[in-house]
């Protein structure tokens, strides 16, 4: 929403109204800060199994082993905590989107999802205190019911407040950057708290983080109601039966959205699963130690956190989302090619990869509200997230099989996926492979470099599909409204024209 797009206070309107509207101009940026905290808790607790799950000291494993006997808490039990979160979300995110657009509305859905995430963190705490594994599983299921849908709700919220004007890509960049902060905080603080206090306190800190998200949700609800009351944003579509999403409309979703989904699935599968195998790859390719390799992987987290807002601002200033997507996909093809044919230091490669990831996220997620009707933005993000989860669940199975094939001498050990848990690839197999990978690192058995080169080719193919889809998106867009390829300055006029021919398409242009 562009500030000059606000409902202009009329001369006869009371002075207070003008003040409210002026205030609301600033409100969207303050609201964005709060929106960043919406998913802070879920990103913080997501990687608990990775940060404080296993290990000889101050971990969940230690607590269970002390109670039930050594060897009770296995790597597999730890990885199952990830899988019960992930697999259901290959479908559940769609229902999350439906709840947002059709049944509950964004505000109530956000409350439900943050409530589920908080409940999950609380049950997890009880499970750790009571040393009860089924409770831990139940906690992660509860968390999973809310976690990914909350990310969908966050996207829908940002789109609702920022669409149709400057700042949307920047806003997405800032929230995505903050997600990385949430993950990094967990890896930084949880082991520290567990060491200085105990494991219960470390898990309780996660509850606190989720409590912050719940508080943020309350603030966002109040801010959203306030903004509706002063005319800054429209009432939620589901509140008006005429505007509410109709299930039949699902079949009318534009082709552009499905192409955006293809880009999302394939570009993400060329990144997250790579991060999943990156540590071992660097150990084999560059002969780094495990710790050194992990540090280089984390460079990607930091550069992407830093670059996402900057690139977001650039995308806002320039527009032309389709070209950013073409650029991002091309950069990923090139990156994986470089990993095969050059020995450029991993630190440099990972830093550039973090920047390329920012091209992707700033071009991709903000494109959705431009092409789908306003009353289906949440649902569209839900579909996109579900498909993304499916891709990220399946792709590591393929790379894992390739790497298994290239295991050097000890076929019983699979060294495909030693990760720090932040790989973004949330598949059961990937995490089981992580577990095996810890064994392999300690035994030194990793797949041959040739195997990693084969996976690099797969990542190139994946990015290649994303590139082809991005070009297709450009063509479709040029044939249609052209809004995704337009310069930022031209967008509002194009969006208004598109809306004239299809009233369902509401880009927030001039409605207020
Ligand atoms: C967690 C989710 N599946 C995801 O991939 N999120 C994106 C960002 C989504 C936009 C903000 N809600 C990511 O790149 O982490």
Automatic annotation (TrEMBL):
Major facilitator superfamily (MFS) profile domain mapped to chain residues: 28-481
Example of a GO MF term: transmembrane transporter activity
InterPro entries: MFS, MFS_dom, MFS_trans_sf, MFSD1
Principal location: membrane
Signal peptide from the UniProt entry: none
Transmembrane segments: 27-46, 80-99, 111-131, 137-157, 169-189, 201-223, 257-277, 297-315, 322-341, 347-365, 377-398, 457-476
Gene Ontology CC annotation, any one: lysosomal membrane
Catalytic activity: L-alpha-aminoacyl-L-histidine(out) = L-alpha-aminoacyl-L-histidine(in); L-lysyl-L-lysine(out) = L-lysyl-L-lysine(in); L-arginyl-glycine(out) = L-arginyl-glycine(in); L-alanyl-L-lysine(out) = L-alanyl-L-lysine(in)
Subcellular location: Lysosome membrane
Lipid bilayer topology: Multi-pass membrane protein
Pfam families: MFS_1
Keywords, sorted A to Z: Lysosome, Membrane, Transmembrane, Transmembrane helix, Transport
Role summary: Lysosomal dipeptide uniporter that selectively exports lysine, arginine or histidine-containing dipeptides with a net positive charge from the lysosome lumen into the cytosol. Could play a role in a specific type of protein O-glycosylation indirectly regulating macrophages migration and tissue invasion. Also essential for liver homeostasis.
Record family assignment: Belongs to the major facilitator superfamily.
PANTHER family in alphabetical order: MAJOR FACILITATOR SUPERFAMILY DOMAIN-CONTAINING PROTEIN 1
Subunit structure: Homodimer. Interacts with lysosomal protein GLMP (via lumenal domain); the interaction starts while both proteins are still in the endoplasmic reticulum and is required for stabilization of MFSD1 in lysosomes but has no direct effect on its targeting to lysosomes or transporter activity.
Protein name per its UniProtKB record: Lysosomal dipeptide transporter MFSD1
Organism (species): Bodo saltans
